[in-house]
Design brief:
It is built from eight helices and 14 strands. By secondary structure, the protein is α+β, with helices and mostly antiparallel strands. It has three domains: 73 residues, Ribosomal Protein S8, Chain: A, domain 1 (2-Layer Sandwich); 78 residues, RRM (RNA recognition motif) domain (Alpha-Beta Plaits); 87 residues, Roll (Structural Genomics Hypothetical 15.5 Kd Protein In mrcA-pckA Intergenic Region, Chain A). Helix 7 crosses helix 8. The mean pLDDT is 90.
Length: 255
């Protein structure tokens, strides 16, 4: 682990111990996939106190997530994740320009907000939805007033169910084998050779764990994320095609 990962490793253990010793819920900042792998490493090393933990980023399929140490079975009461969803929309849509995920990210960073204080950003036409911790969300409500040339307003909202459905596309693909490189190549229209750097650069995760072995076998129920492309779930394995290839039903998430 590098220095930043070692600091995070120690911080997560500290949060676990504080929750256990004080009988209170503790929460991490939003963690990227690589940072979540640091958390899993701490768990494998048995560094955490004997207390429950779970991850959540605002809704089920978020990539960036907080860790919560503690549960109702541990303490006898429940505390929700301190996460709010902020809707960002132009003040004058008639004259507004559509901006990308990167544009919203840049505007947030220009306010001096640390990346770990907000999670996934979903762009829906001229609107965007941003998951943030409660204090950051309150700050955005007052201070996030422009994206590019658009003057914007912010409000507390939820990611619409219609957007969740629109962002999800089901497809059936055919692969020679359920190897991770073969499946990713087929989903994102790449060659298997083109997928290799994504494994070596730790940009592929399966069920929240970074995968560096491109020959890892995938199966129904697996959730796969490829940084730079997006995320997909393997819904089910079908039979073989006439040419002997495996049919896989996948759900592909748009961003």
């Amino acid at each position: 682990m590098n220095d930043d990962e070692q600091l995070l490793y120690k911080r997560l253990i500290e949060l676990s111990n504080r929750a256990y010793q004080n009988n209170i819920y503790t929460f991490s900042d939003f963690l990227s996939l690589s940072q979540q792998e640091v958390m899993y490493q701490a768990a494998r090393d048995k560094g955490f106190a004997p207390i429950s933990y779970d991850l959540f980023g605002g809704y089920e399929n978020c990539e960036r997530k907080m860790v919560r140490f503690g549960s109702e079975s541990d303490f006898g009461y429940d505390v929700e994740f301190p996460i709010k969803c902020i809707k960002v929309e132009p003040l004058a849509k008639k004259f507004a320009k559509e901006y990308t995920h990167r544009d919203y990210l840049g505007s947030l960073m220009s306010l001096g907000i640390d990346r770990k204080k907000f999670g996934d950003i979903f762009v829906d036409g001229m609107d965007a939805y941003i998951y943030a911790d409660e204090s950051t969300a309150d700050y955005l409500l007052e201070n996030f007033v422009s994206v590019g040339r658009n003057s914007v307003k912010c409000s507390i909202s939820e990611l619409p169910e219609s957007y969740k459905r629109a962002a999800l596309k089901e497809a059936t693909i055919q692969v020679a084998s359920p190897r991770a490189d073969a499946v990713i190549a087929k989903v994102y229209n790449l060659s298997r050779k083109d997928t290799i750097p994504y494994f070596t650069e730790k940009k592929v995760s399966v069920n929240g764990h970074i995968v560096e072995n491109n020959d890892k076998l995938l199966s129904a129920g697996d959730s796969v994320s490829v940084r730079g492309f997006g995320k997909f779930n393997i819904v089910e394995e079908g039979g073989l095609s006439r040419k002997g290839k495996l049919n896989l039903v996948v759900e592909i998430f748009g961003r």
